[in-house]
Hints:
Radius of gyration: 14 Å
Shape: globular
CATH topology: Glutaredoxin
Number of helices: 5
Mean pLDDT: 96
Strand content: 15-25%
CATH class: Alpha Beta
Helix content: 10-25%
Strand order of the largest sheet: 5-4-3-6-7
Largest sheet: 5 strands, mixed
Amino acid sequence: xxxxxxxxxxxxxxxxxxxxxxxxxxxxxxxxxxxxxxxxxxxxxxxxxxxxxxxxxxxxxxxxxxxxxxxxxxxxxxxxxxxxxxxxxxxxxxxxxxxxxxxxxxxxxxxxxxxxxxxxxxxxxxxxxxxxxxxxxxxxxxxxxxxxxxxxxxxxxxx
Length: 159
């Protein structure tokens, strides 16, 4: 098993189904921790545009998290409804998880620890921090919340 790839990590979708990350092999993946009550919440619109523009070669995965200012207090049903009603989200949304601290989900352990991803350490500073993964499940880079989803920093890897 290639531990420098994220394909071995298990996470559930917002409706409780297992997501097999290797289903996205051959596509890049943007993983972003999301929240419904954040100043950056309008980035859902940009994330949807990014997904719509590049969906032949990109999967966007939103990961709800309530660790920053308790800005994602909702249940799975509330989060799903919010995303669809307000932003027409059709990209993948996972279960709500911890992205830092003692309860950190294995996906975020991989994203933030160089010894796991083979590239670099980071810490999740706030909601809507983005991680870019290549077509083989390998770490490319991460971008803080201020980087808009359609930013050239991200799209240059998709063109």
